[in-house]
Amino acid sequence: MAAPVPWACCAVLAAAAAVVYTQRHSSQEAPHVQYERLGSDVTLPCGTANWDAAVTWRVNGTDLAPDLLNGSQLVLRGLELGHSGLYACFHRDSWHLHHQVLLHVGLPPREPVLSCRSNTYPKGFYCSWHLPAPTYIPNTFNVTVLHGSKIMVCEKDPALKNRCHIRYMHLFSTIKYKVSISVSNALGHNATAITFDEFTIVKPDPPENVVARPVPSSPRRLEVTWQTPSTWPDPESFPLKFFLRYRPLILDQWQHVELSDGTAHTITDAYAGKEYIIQVAAKDNEIGTWSDWSVAAHATPWTEEPRHLTTEAQAPETTTSTTSSLAPPPTTKICDPGELGSGGGSSTPSLVRVPVTLALAAAATAASSLLV
Amino acid sequence: MDLRAGDSWGMLACLCTVLWHLPAVPALNRTGDPGPGPSIQKTYDLTRYLEHQLRSLAGTYLNYLGPPFNEPDFNPPRLGAETLPRATVNLDVWRSLNDKLRLTQNYEAYSHLLCYLRGLNRQAATGELRRSLAHFCTSLQGLLGSIAGVMAALGYPLPQPLPGTEPTWAPGPAHSDFLQKMDDFWLLKELQTWLWRSAKDFNRLKKKMQPPAAAVTLHLEAHGF
Q1: CB contact under 8 A, A239 and B203
Q2: Which of A14, A360, B112, B146 has the most crowded CB, counting CB atoms within 10 A?
Q3: Which of B91, B194, B199 comes nearest A169 by C-beta?
């Protein structure tokens, strides 16, 4: 029991000593905070010390070369971001800390970029902003929303700090909204404003849960379904129309379909066996602009399962005759063009299977007539 | 012919009185009728057609008025034009409007707006502008008739003007040219907004009138059953 007590005693004594030490060696409680512009020159005086006092400057604990000094003042030319830090000057002989400066190098703000959008019409809209270039120092933003002469409240977004939300009190207004933003930091100030009508900023979120499925027994169809965006509050009174685009992955050109109703569509002109990429966009039926494209869905139309693909895969590239170059598999009848239409129950199943194999063998020949 | 301001407003009042007393469109033939659904759809389609027509008409007219009226950022305070029917409405109030009130508000608004539009035919307007305006007025008349048809099909009476509340738009004694242009600007703006609102109004009516069974049938058909 005796051991812990002396340990605790030592800890307390050490802490006390540290406190006393720092108090003796700092003339100020907190460093002076200073903001300076990138690229400019700055002269840091050593607090209240005389110009000819003998001092040493340190930055973040590292000594600085005396050639930067002008008397007891530190001169920094052509400030770079790396110059930011804690600068401290000490009396050279006593090492007494005389003055500290926390230097932040930054820029005044450029004109902010402001945009507003209503993806929750008719509930309200939101505005978001950003600076086109960083300032490297803290900025404060102030947003005001005017509807005619009436000031409206813009509630800060709980998650995003450069966004705020406005609730519509009235719909179908002829008076424009004016949103102004001002930004300021220690080095400067800037502002901008935008005006718009209620209808022009309506832009829904993209449709959700876009799913594309092949249709059994239909080699050229794809069934696409989606949901109205969950942020759109009232699809009953404010219905959305949709725009679908699709293409096979191997082609660049999109096909487009505009749909005024419903959240499903069947593509009927898909190329057989090709993987497709499909996207959907939404828009209010009458006002505003189209949403961004949804997350893409991928699907390949249904294709028949080829049963004897492994034995027939070693087919020659070109043939003039469709029958002579193939070794017929034991149970499959080669489909001779002359036999087509001659009927017979046994020929029908082979007709289904053979086109797959013949396509491999005679793609360029007149056997294309065999391809259904 | 150089009309004095007093004369043109008198003519306007006269025209508006005539408009209010137009005979109502007879009710739909009840035998095997599909209900008011098709005429609501037709009214909706008319609002879209008119909104499209108005876009080009307003563009031409505002250019005729000249700057600042044709500038996209033009954002004047709403002074004067107090008697214009305003489309703006509180969101909750709009949602809870019953069908009769919804239709009545639309009918009354377009009656007023048509009246003012007819008075817009100004001395200085070009012949082409007068023709476009006249064409638009005819279309707007058609919309009014369509709304009247829906109201009749649903058994609602057409609103009758109370004596003394007929839309007259008496300008002040020194109603300058600029203020007149401001009134024209607000008329076109309000008309455009009403057409957007009507599309939403008729959407709501369409959804309410749609019998649920029909919706299910359509759904089944789409799946090839």
Answers
A1: yes
A2: B112
A3: B91
Whether residues B193 and A174 touch (CB distance < 8 A) is answered with yes
Residue A286 to residue B51, Cβ atoms within 8 A: yes
pLDDT for residue A67: 85
Looking at every residue in chain A, the average pLDDT score rounds to 82
Cα→Cα distances A270→A133, A219, A312, Å:
46, 8, 27
Verify whether the Cβ–Cβ distance B197 to A176 is below 8 Å: no
**Cis before residue A207, ω within 30 degrees of 0?**
no
pTM of the model: 0.72
- What tokens appear for A12 in the block? 């307390």
Joined tokens for residue A79: 């400030």
- Contact between A175 and A99 (Cβ < 8 Å): no
Residue A108 has pLDDT above 70, yes or no: yes
Cβ-Cβ contacts under 8 Å, A118 against chain B? none
Output the 3-class SS for A71-84. Answer: CCEEEECCCCHHHC
How many angstroms separate the CA of residue B189 from the nearest CA in chain A?
6
Q: ipTM for the complex?
A: 0.76
Chain-centre distance of CA A9, in angstroms? 56
Reported as a single tens digit per residue, the pLDDT across A260-309 is 888 999 999 999 999 999 999 999 999 999 999 999 999 999 988 776 65
